[in-house]
């Protein structure tokens, strides 16, 4: 099954093999669309399937998360807690926990086996636009409009580390199946791959490759001041004087080469 949510407030589903349209997940008591089936009273921003594929969770600008029966399309539960739009939702690997991020700058951890209030994690200075839980269920990663990625321990609800390589809003996060790799996508089109994620060393340096503006994480038409600022920001992280790892040396070489390419491009214009 494939499911999608839209600004029309509807969750629609299809059968992947037959391409047959299966219908809408209908929240029939909507005050806004009494004559038309809708799933939420606001835009739908995120959808997630439970690990057993029996439940679909949807997030919306109406400040709620809704849980639906995949086969029946019936609304089973509504989670209220966010004070503003909910932008992202994800299940834990065992299906017992849902994590959500919202415009209210918080992450909320919902225990689906209880009916109490969610655990609230605060740390971002802007909207939380992406959340994902590691395959072992121990780590939560959040990405914000503040351009940072935060790594949280689900056991202690504490921030373990903040990653600042991006220079634009974080729009998407994904773990590899074995949990050793995290991929993050930024609003400016930059994708960073974070390698060797484990309990001993949570995140190593990003693997930087591509065009010079991609490596320096700036727009292609960025001015010289912006490019220089980005270069120095990365150099402070990976210069051998502050980071003696072998990986840092290779990353620094890529950064230097990218900045040199930018300078050559500028010199060619004069």
Blueprint of the fold:
Elements (H helix, E strand, L loop, with lengths): L1 E4 L5 E4 L6 E4 L19 E6 L5 E6 L3 E6 L5 E6 L5 E6 L5 E6 L3 E6 L7 E4 L5 E6 L5 E6 L4 E5 L4 E6 L6 E6 L6 E5 L4 E4 L11 E2 L4 H4 L8 H15 L7 H23 L2
Antiparallel strand pairs: 1-2, 2-3, 4-5, 5-6, 6-7, 8-9, 9-10, 10-11, 12-13, 13-14, 14-15, 16-17, 17-18, 18-19
Helix pairs in contact: 2-3
Organism: Dulcicalothrix desertica PCC 7102
Protein name: J domain-containing protein
Keywords: Repeat, WD repeat
Order of helices and strands: EEEEEEEEEEEEEEEEEEEHHH
Going by CATH, the homologous superfamily of the largest domain would be YVTN repeat-like/Quinoprotein amine dehydrogenase
CATH-derived architecture of the largest domain: 7 Propeller
- Gross morphology: elongated
Return the domain count. Answer: 2
Number of strands: 19
Structural class designation: alpha+beta
Protein name: J domain-containing protein
Keywords: Repeat, WD repeat
WD repeats: 37-78, 79-113, 121-162, 163-195
Pfam families: DnaJ, WDR90_beta-prop_4th
């Amino acid at each position: 099954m494939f499911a999608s949510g839209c600004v029309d407030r509807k969750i629609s589903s299809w059968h992947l093999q037959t391409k047959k349209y299966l219908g809408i997940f209908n929240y029939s008591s909507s005050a806004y669309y009494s004559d038309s089936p809708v799933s939420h009273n606001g835009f739908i921003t995120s959808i997630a399937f439970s690990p057993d594929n029996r439940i679909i969770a949807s997030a919306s600008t109406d400040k709620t998360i809704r849980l639906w029966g995949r086969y029946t399309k019936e609304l089973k539960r509504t989670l209220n807690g966010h004070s503003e739009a909910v932008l992202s939702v994800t299940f834990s690997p065992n299906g017992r926990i849902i994590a959500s991020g919202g415009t209210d700058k918080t992450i909320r951890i919902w225990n689906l086996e209880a009916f109490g209030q969610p655990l609230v994690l605060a740390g971002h200075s802007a909207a939380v636009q992406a959340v994902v839980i590691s395959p072992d269920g121990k780590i939560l990663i959040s990405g914000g409009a503040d351009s940072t990625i935060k790594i949280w321990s689900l056991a202690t609800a504490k921030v373990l580390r903040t990653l600042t390589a991006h220079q634009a809003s974080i729009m998407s996060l994904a773990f590899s199946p074995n949990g050793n790799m995290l991929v993050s996508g930024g609003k400016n089109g930059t994708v960073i791959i974070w390698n060797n994620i484990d309990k001993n060393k949570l995140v190593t340096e990003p693997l930087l490759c591509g065009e010079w503006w991609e490596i320096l994480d700036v727009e292609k038409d960025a001015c010289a001041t912006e490019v220089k600022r980005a270069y120095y920001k990365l150099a402070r992280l990976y210069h051998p004087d502050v980071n003696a790892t072998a990986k840092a040396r290779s990353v620094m070489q890529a950064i230097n080469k990218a900045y040199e390419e930018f300078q050559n491009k500028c010199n060619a214009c004069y």
